[in-house]
Amino acid sequence: MRATWVRLWRGAVGLGAGALLLTAAGSAAAQPGAAGAQLRPFICQTQSFLLPDGSNLGPPLDAACGFTPRIDYVYMPKAGGGFRPMADTARLPDDVATTTTTAGLTVPFVVRLETTPINRGIHQNAVLFDPTAETAPTPAGPPRAWNRRLLAVHGVGCPGGWYIQGAAQGVSVLDPVRLGEGYAVFNNTLRHPTNSCNAALAGETAKLDKAHVVEVFGAPDFTVSMGGSGGAYTSLQIADAFPGLFDGLLISATFPDALSIAMAGSDAHLLSHYFAGPGAGFSEAQRVAVSGYKSLRAFADAAGQVQRTDPVSDRTSPDGYRGAVWNPAVPATLRYDPKTNPHGARPTIFDVARDIYGVDRATGFALRPFDNVGVQYGQMALRARQITPAQFLDLNARIGGYDRDANFVTARSVGDLGAIRRAQEAGLALGGGGGLASIPVLDAAGGPLLYDEDGGYHYQWFHFAVRERMKQANGDASNHVMWRGGIGMADISRTASAAALSPEGQAVSAKVTVEGWNALVDWIAAIKADPGAGSTREKVRRDRPANLMDGCWTKSLDPQFIAEPQTWGRGPDTRCNALYPSYSFVRKEAGGPLAANVYKCQLKAIDPKDYAGFTATELARLRAIFPTGVCDFTRPGQGAARVIPRT
Predict the structure, then answer these.
(1) Beta-bridge partner residues of 363
(2) Is residue 281 part of a domain?
(3) What is the sign, positive or negative, of the torsion defined by CA atoms of 559, 565, 566, 569?
(4) Do 337 and 313 meet the contact criterion of CB atoms below 8 Å apart?
(5) Secondary structure letter of residue 280 according to DSSP
(6) Residue 207 belongs to domain spanning
(7) How much is the pTM?
(8) How many domains does the chain fold into?
(9) Would residue 46 count as lying in a domain?
(10) Which residue, 52, 223, 486, 617, has fewest beta-carbon neighbours within 10 Å?
């Protein structure tokens, strides 16, 4: 039955959204669950996908981007330097190296690489395999050196990730360390957010990817998912929405989801627009205080991430971003332009997942969840007396919102409640209460700027937002361990920022990479070996290694681990916060939660006691600015919902 199901789906075109419904509001929406309408347009890129020997997959065979599956072999030479193609499968190369797996088996370092179409994406899996001595693998006869463990890797990014198959996977399955240990590694172009910034589609694809690997090799003992940045949120979102697919996560440069980046960017971009106009009189210190970020540079980097929501090309702004990021593979004739091509494809995280967010029948555009009704921008700065009541009132009177094309408008933005609810149910907005409740999660390292928070938009608050969401959903986050320090789990030799790191930074990163992986694998193995009673979540708690705890790594050539609970904050309150101070974001400085999961707040009446020092005239103006009330962040957001797990 499994094999039949996999064959039926290998060329599938689902969006992971479900059957279309018509809502009472007259918009098309999706029922999270089964595969839904296919994404169009969709550009095949088989002819651009390169294989180890330098060849490509050739032109697509059909509209579903099909191609002829193939098996290639590569080997690691004794001198190292990376894998080389192995054209002759009848004899081993004279210079082939050997490797010893986690099971203690020493074998020639030859890797079988399969490339096959799955879900309109390009799937690859790799595993140790000696074609000169072994027959084709089957579940009854798996590769001899496979340690019966799987590793799912994912790509990075998001801007430009729409309407394409992808010409690369972002992170190669040819990982010499994990393959050398005996792991089978798999990936798909549709799990690289730079190709497809849609976690529902990535999850559907990952399920099919793993099913195919099981069909070929047999059932694994466990599956680890690993990724940084976009690969971190891809790991988190898939694990939460598809329970049982992954048995543990090793993540770095963490975000909860692409939506969190876009929503934080939307607030920051509005604020940047205000400061460039009527708010020009705010000092640099006041701008930083209202934004919550460490510096104006960090604030501008955050604001620039609103590009994920902007469908209009060639737009620039004072905070330095450009709108409508497109992959060059998408022809200009297919791209949306409000004047010349109003029915073209729209390059936003909403429109690429329109079956989930829902569609406005009047425009054909995806419904949007961004809402800032009742948000009191600069509230914390006002309370700290960093801005005056007059500045606070002017800011909130003029901040405005966006229209459907991400143009600035004077009115506040009203998010669609259905879109907000469905995004959470489908896991596009990470909840943490699905599959994440019952697997180990090790957030083992930070972004490429080593937590200096001066830019790059890999801010620490995103890491803590993940933990807060898991805690809210499950009562605690005992299955979540956080380490700070380092640049991420990728091999630093393959990280673009590695050259910019100090020797101390490289030392921390190398140590975190090794120790983080070993710690997580030991944890997963202990859970799988636990024959005792209790739920998986209970086993996750009790089988966590005693030496695996929260902490951070010192910045030195011999990094030392400081074991202490990790908290969001800065200053001398803890040793780790002194080393790696964490800053805030615009919505939190407006009184919002660290979890950043209130997308449309419930409102409350203005209470004069909350505005000490305001005159009667100022209070009257405040009521005029917020005629329906202000956000009550002590209550769940409107449209709050839990993820609906898909199995």
Answers:
(1) none
(2) no
(3) negative
(4) yes
(5) T
(6) 39-220
(7) 0.93
(8) 1
(9) yes
(10) 617
